[in-house]
């Protein structure tokens, strides 16, 4: 299959798998901000961030090995799933034994056992879905994403609305149960028990861990880049301020939805193309298309940001809108970093992912400590954007030994500068839609040739599919 068609096909499958959950996350913010106070929402956000921070450590990032090794090692797939589950269960058992230490410690409060349950469900969810994706059962993977969304919405409605009205506890239970039920659906729907084996191959496990363990500090630093701002905001300001920031950070999921879906397909393509002779041209072309879609999408969001934000959150959270523009910029550069970072996965050189992420994580923490006391939550948004931009720059330089991606002036540098100008104007409270619209038109004009070419290519592929169906 043509590599572009394969990438497009996989993107379509993963679009089905993820669009519902990501869109639900976006749409449910209005619901959450209506039933939870700023302090409750801020505490819950910090708790979820901590789960995401701990899971890579206690699982030794074995979920990443479950995906990567299952893609091209059919013979050892039973070992891969069995040992991945064993590592995930063992790590969560250790966390459970240490649960009493978390009792009464912020932000866990009276939720340490619930925290452990969330960690276990999240770990097994990652193992089973990543393995399912790796062995090519993409339709089941897609279905699991849809069902997870339905479960998440259903449990939240059940637990947060009357007569239960469990507040933050219900919010946490909804996440735990949605993950747990999805694990069972994937396990039985994919007949994963057929891949379980009593054989425990220490040599093969060592090979998997050599791949996954360098990703622990990488994942840790990556999560710190995402979460450190939350801890600084709570420490310097308050849980309520973090609630405002958490609500504002959900709006850029509009952009991360597109990139996350794409990266799941791109990760498979990058492995396939790792040794191709013209991969530099392929990578550069795909990056240009990605940058075009994300930049134009973000620019349009800036044009309608204020009215959109008023619909997006409850009125009591509206004052947090001004930190949103630079959170968008941060998400954008996070996407670029993720694109470049697939080189480390494809080449199984995961140490590079760690060293490049450390730079961004340290910078993010330092800038948050400096800017949050000075500028409040806006300072945290700026710190995050700068840290992700620096991470992308370092990765772009470091991965030249694998492949050279070309960043053009017209199709990347100028549009990015214009986008940052839009963000700065909004942050400075220049809210008129006219300058925002002018910049948006300028960005679209810069990408004019690429947009026309992409539309033509899409139309051509559509005609080919229609011909095949008729034939």
Brief summary of the model shown:
80% of the residues lie in helices and 0% in strands.
Which keywords apply here?
single chain; 471 residues; globular
Question: Helix segment count?
Answer: 19
Give the number of DSSP strands: 0
How far the N terminus sits from the C terminus, by CA atoms, comes to 19 Å
| Largest β-sheet summary | none
Please report which band the strand proportion falls in: under 5%, 5-15%, 15-25%, 25-35%, 35-45% or over 45%.
under 5%
The assigned structural class equals mainly alpha
Q: On the 0-100 scale, what is the average pLDDT?
A: 84
Q: Which residues form runs of ≥5 with pLDDT under 50?
A: none
Helix content: over 70%
Report on the architecture of this protein.
The protein contains 19 helices and no strands. The chain is globular. The model has no long low-confidence stretch (mean pLDDT 84). It is mainly α and 471 residues long.
